[in-house]
Design brief:
Number of strands: 0
Structural class: mainly alpha
Oligomer: single chain
Helix content: over 70%
Distance between the termini: 43 Å
Order of helices and strands: HHHHHHHHHHHHHHHHHH
Length: 458
């Protein structure tokens, strides 16, 4: 049996993982710079340098920040089909180069054309980064051995959290320095261009393309893989109940993630009475601890799977359950009980840690269901959850009219807990960690699947 064969040690696959890991970190440096820097951009005197511009007359800050997701949402759907046909390397390099250039030109464009220029730039960055996210699943399918799928997949997906931590700290420091907020966009753009050079030289679409991979490592990676270049069976995918259960669970969990990452800083400041700087520091520490927690979850899950203590299905359900129900419990505590400042912060801390278990849940589950079409599955879940995740922000905007009222915030927290819990019920009942029938399709595909694929590739 495959599980009885010895594992291959450190190899070229780890270099490829490091490239993709660093790419995701840089992506989040670039896209998270705006939400942090916009405070300094609209607050005169943030930098001691009087030459650093500030735009205190801007009244469309919410529109500016949401413009990234207008571009990000739709392109997730085509990222999977594109990488299957052309590979992911060229699109990753293209995306990073364009996003880096736009990041470096953003300060000049904003100074010249105002907030409308920033909306255009963030929309463009979102557009190209949306292509890349589903390609991460395709990378995991090709480069991660089955025995290492959970830790490698989690390492890559969870790097979004690390990128957010770095963006928060570095952007804040640069914005308040003599160089001011423009320096953050210049720095991240330059880092992105340097990464692109490394990816062009050292990146490969698959182990088979790598020039120096050993035969032993190649066989180890291939072990248990059944990859194909056949057409995407959209019709069969849409009829798969386990696939739908993962999509629905993703929507519920991403709803809670968006609420937590977007609204908790305001809640901490207005309800708990903690200053903005301390609230930011608390969130950064929480992100960092959450990031390291993902490695405990992923390594434990893979150990249990490799040693046949638990099935892949059970492990994925446990991780998704921890993310959805664990976070919901702490949201309910915040909503129902009058907690003191310490206990409230403790609930927020553990709520966000629980959410990160989803990196070993629905995020990697697409690779379980279909190693061949995981990028396509992730793209459908990504565009749907991104669009739906606008709702918790809108609910807070219209429901929380008094930001210092813990009661009003409690309603938003309860709704989020219900959405996450109900969505994950479907995954608990119908979710699976086994390869689905549509992953190994016949040469004779139904006409509807072919037409659907052509439509998505246009």
């Amino acid at each position: 049996m495959d599980s009885e064969l010895p594992a291959y040690g450190i190899g070229v696959r780890h270099g490829q993982v490091a490239l993709i890991f660093s790419m995701v970190v840089i992506m989040y440096l670039i896209n998270m710079a705006a939400p942090i820097a916009i405070v300094a951009m609209t607050t005169p005197g943030t930098s001691p340098n009087p030459e650093v511009p500030a735009f205190k007359s801007w009244t469309d800050q919410s529109l500016v920040l949401i413009s990234y997701y207008w571009g990000f949402a739709p392109t997730q759907l085509i990222g999977g089909p594109l990488t299957r046909k052309y590979g992911f390397k060229k699109f990753m390099v293209l995306s990073m180069v364009i996003c880096s250039i736009f990041s470096m030109f953003l300060p000049s464009l904003v100074i010249e054309y105002g907030s409308k220029a920033m909306i255009f730039v963030l929309f463009t960055i979102g557009f190209y980064q949306g292509l890349i996210l589903p390609m991460l699943s395709d990378f995991v399918s090709k480069w991660a051995p089955v025995r290492e799928r959970t830790p490698i997949g989690t390492f890559i997906f969870a790097s979004k959290t690390l990128g957010t931590v770095f963006a928060s700290e570095i952007t804040g420091l640069l914005s308040s320095s003599w160089w001011g907020w423009p320096s953050a966009f210049y720095l991240y753009g330059m880092i992105g261009l340097v990464w692109s050079i490394f990816m062009i030289i050292f990146g490969y679409n698959s182990p088979e393309e790598h020039k120096s991979i050993s035969q032993a490592e190649l066989e180890y990676i291939r072990r248990g893989q059944t990859l194909t270049t056949k057409r995407i069976p959209w019709n069969k995918i849409m009829k798969s109940v386990p696939t739908w259960s993962t999509w629905i669970s993703q929507i519920g969990i991403v709803w809670t993630i968006r609420l937590s990452t977007t609204e908790f800083p305001t809640y901490i400041n207005r309800v708990l009475g903690i200053d903005v700087g301390s609230a930011g520091a608390f969130m950064s520490i929480t992100y960092l601890v959450s990031y390291f927690f993902t490695f405990f979850v992923s390594s434990s899950s893979q150990y249990l799977i490799n040693n046949n203590y638990l099935s892949t299905t059970v492990c994925r359900k446990l991780c998704n359950g921890l993310a959805a129900y664990g976070s919901s419990i702490f949201l309910v505590f915040l909503a129902v009980f009058r907690l003191n400042r310490f206990l409230a912060l403790l609930c927020i801390f553990f709520e966000m840690i629980c959410l990160n278990a989803s990196f070993s849940g629905y995020n990697i589950n697409y690779n379980d269901l279909s190693p061949n079409f995981s990028g396509c599955l992730f793209g459908v879940g990504g565009i749907t959850s991104t669009i739906v995740s606008f709702l918790p922000v809108m609910i807070v905007q219209y429901m929380v009219t008094d930001q210092s009222s813990s009661t009003q915030w409690g309603y938003a927290f309860l709704i989020s807990a219900i959405v996450a819990s109900v969505g994950t019920i479907f995954f608990m009942l119908k979710g699976s960690g086994e390869v689905q029938d549509y992953d190994d399709i016949d040469d004779k595909e139904d006409e509807e699947s072919q037409l659907l694929e052509k439509k998505h590739l246009k």
